[in-house]
Amino acid sequence: MKRTLALALLQACCVTATLTDVGSGRVRIHPRSLPFNKRDGRDCGKFEMFCEKAAGACNNACYHINCIDKNTETMVFDAGNTNDKNRLQSGCRTDDGSVCNKLPFSQKLRDPVNSTPGDLTAANCDEWPMATTKQDDFLDGNIRNSLRCIVGSENFSAGSQLNNWMKGTNANGPKKTCDGDIKDGDHWTISFNLDNVDKSNVNHCDRPGQTCDSDPFQFHMTKKTQHLDHPYKPDEHNRYSIGKNQPDLYQCRVVAHLHGTVLEATVYNNAGDNKGSAGKEGMKKNDVLEVKGLPLPLAIIYNEDDANPLSFNYGAKEFFETDLLQFFFWTSDQKGVSKQFQDDGSYCERKDKGTEHVFGCYFPCPAE
Description:
368 residues, alpha+beta, disordered N terminus
């Protein structure tokens, strides 16, 4: 029960305010100018989160506070809230499971954290602000919560620290200043202790406001249906966007035919439309076939390896001058956490026909 409460206190969130200037762009956030303006409860002081074992949770919180809404460094406890409802409202959870375990989002946002095939517990979705705080329901087109797929142990560490602070049993940092149990309407502020932390893992805390537009793992929900399935259907499923001013993340597909040293490939958009093809003969090791037609170009690299003959690089800067927030790299034998497409978590379905090898792969791509 204590562990469940600790995770619940950390794993859900809210956002506030109106159209405002944040960093280099303008971003629409939740329409309450101050979500914490009804402070009928007690001021319980400051909670200090020690980030050494909770870097992912700290970074997600710092991103939201420093890049989206400064007001959310103050939290108001909602004793009557339903955490499950708030997690659905944040987009971390759907009726079909966590966004971090569903294609195409698991490929882009979770597998780089922990890609153990089939392991649904090694990483999970973290929300800021927390589910236990007072917040309005999600509105399409507004940033309500900042989301990040983080290592599960980091999420647990942050939740345990908060749980101990709320009980007044925290060993480090300031104690809460209100007596007894935290009650409905009680509020507090948060600070982050970066001692013994690799600063590259908490860049939004270490360099507040300077890294808002360059983190490919910060995302938020833009439309809520409470469903996610494969293949991804943006009209029927939740929509999500990386960063603040990026297009929604959709799902594309490539079919590559490798026959000896002849490589041909076709790319398809989320609707299944053929968007372009390319071919090249006499492929040698590390040769690149470029396929255009999607919002960003796809580079297919020949590895000259029977077990893993191809690598795929969508929109990556080493091949093209494109947006690094949308890049995606994978190999023909790569596996991830989601088994929605292939039972073993493979990104690509491989079919061998004599000397011809056919690879059909789904991958994340920006909306057209």
